[in-house]
Design a protein that fits this description.
- The chain has 170 residues and is α/β, with parallel strands linked by helices.
- The chain has a single domain, classed as Rossmann fold (3-Layer(aba) Sandwich).
- The chain is 25% helix and 26% strand.
- It is globular.
- It starts with 11 loop residues before the first strand and ends in a 7-residue tail after the last helix.
- The relative contact order is 0.26.
- It binds adenosine-5'-triphosphate and magnesium ion.
């Protein structure tokens, strides 16, 4: 048996959400833990709840305004008390080269922090350390399986804080 004296860190957290409000609540808890420099990459099919999660994250970050997915612009910027938050939605990109051509690397995380819907469409541009959140449709209409995976130490600590953070849909 070995004793581990490292601070607790978690690689992966799985959450079952049973409603949009629970997904939003999870986003809020992640947002509350986000810091300048963080990058969050979201994956999941159309209607999985990516934007719903991002709305909760904005709330957790202290941004009270309305959050909508960027469409033609690819990136929206919101001020938060912890720095600028860039919200990218890459659904319309056809290949990752396009993201680079559009200069999106500048926002990952740039001078703030970033959350990216359809992040797999710009996998080459993502920093190797980031928080990955994959949303999947569950067995019933309002159920979603949400898996958060830490890529890098900063995000293992974030997940540990999330897992130890008390009640919620987890
Ligand atoms: N548990 C749930 N979590 C999140 N959304 C849910 C849930 N159950 C049902 N929904 C519904 O699914 C839809 C999710 O929409 P949302 O825009 O967040 O998805 P999205 O992943 O961003 O889609 P897109 O790829 O089109 O941008 C909403 O209509 C929401 O009401
Ligand atoms: Mg969306």
């Amino acid at each position: 048996m070995s004793l581990d004296h490292e601070p607790a860190a978690t690689d992966r957290v799985q959450v079952l959400s049973r409603s949009p409000a629970q997904t939003r609540g999870l986003g809020e808890r992640v947002g509350a833990l986000m810091q300048k420099g963080d990058v969050v990459a979201l994956a999941g099919p159309l209607g999985a709840g990516k934007t719903t999660l991002v709305q909760g994250m904005a709330e957790g970050l202290g941004f009270a305004g309305r959050v909508r997915s960027p469409s033609f612009t690819l990136v929206n910027e919101y001020p938060t008390p912890r720095g600028k938050r860039y919200h990218l939605d890459l659904f319309r990109l056809e290949h990752s080269g396009e993201a680079e051509e559009a200069g999106l690397g500048e926002f990952l995380p740039g001078d703030g922090m970033a959350v990216v819907e359809w992040a797999d469409r710009a996998a080459d541009l993502l920093p190797s350390e980031h928080l990955e959140i994959a949303l999947e449709m569950g067995p019933q209409e309002e159920v979603r399986i949400i898996v958060l995976t830490a890529r890098g130490k900063r995000y293992r600590l974030l997940l540990a804080a999330l897992a130890n953070g008390g009640q919620g849909p987890c």
